[in-house]
Amino acid sequence: MTRQIRAKKSLGQNFLHDASVIESIVGAIGINATDTVIEIGPGTGALTETLVKTGAKVVAIEFDRELVPLLTQQFRFDENFSLVNTDALNVDFASIVGKPEGVKLIANLPYNISTPILQRLIEQRHIFSTLVLMFQREVVERIVAKPATKERGYLSVIAQTAFEIEYLFDVPPDSFRPVPKVWSSVIRLTPKAAFGGDEGIFRKVVSQSFAQKRKTILNNLKGIYDAGGSMLDSAGIDGKRRAESLTLDEWAALTAAIKKGASETPR
Ligand code: SAM
Q1: Fewer CB within 10 Å: C terminus or N terminus of the chain?
Q2: Is residue 267 part of a domain?
Q3: In the predicted structure, residue 14 carries a pLDDT above the cut 80
Q4: What is the whole-number distance in angstroms between the Cα of residue 82 and the centre of ligand 1?
Q5: From CA 139, how far away is CA 145, in angstroms rounded?
Q6: Closest C-alpha to ligand 1, atom 12
Q7: Is residue 184 in some structural domain?
Q8: Of 136, 160, 191, which residue is a domain's last?
Q9: Residue 186 β-bridge partners
Q10: Residues 179 and 247 in one domain
Q11: Strands annotated E in 10-136
Q12: Quick one: average pLDDT of 158-166?
């Protein structure tokens, strides 16, 4: 099919055209005909076409209204395909597929919404069995960053607490049209068992601890917790450390100490 679509930069539209990359991405999620798969941002249908051929139930969520006629036409004979024209940032994924668990998700994500989309996926991770996501490589480097590295930040800690993460491969700019300035990378996520602690406190403490990366964790936490020092002490964490040095176990211990003890004083 001729695709005379003018890519919209504002929606992060860089369409994949490299058949081997498409095969590798879809192959990475391991689909069979009984699966239900959500695709965020089908665009001109590059990944969708391969997904639909597996026979799985494919629910595509596309924000761009102008792509609806093209996608509807392209997949008009495929009963296993359906399209939802909406913003994936506002979607309750379980209700659009009518399934509370075991759902797979695939997405070549618009760069400008990678963080909020990842946050939504974390919040709703319990309905998914596997997610294969492509982001700008720099975003992936932050997602997989180990403690005490310069890329370690809020995104690394919340993503690694929620998922087992495998860094699969990099994709060069010339695999897309239009050609982006940057490389992309593909990761596979598998939700971890439920987080034992209070997720609200966890997200707040991690976010606040990274508020100013050059400050110590104690100085960052003082912004919201008067008793930041004693909470760090009871979690066995030296307040002079910086947030990027903490391991996932230490974040869990700090969350538990905050939940247990201290009164929070909003400022
Ligand atoms: N999957 C296609 C491919 O690989 O060629 C297109 C990928 S393109 C990088 C991102 C797609 O996400 C575009 O089709 C864009 O319109 C869509 N998109 C952007 N923001 C969105 C949002 N908030 N919700 C759903 N789709 C969105």
Answers
A1: C
A2: no
A3: yes
A4: 16
A5: 10
A6: 41
A7: yes
A8: 191
A9: 134, 169
A10: no
A11: 15-16, 36-40, 57-61, 81-84, 103-108, 128-136
A12: 97
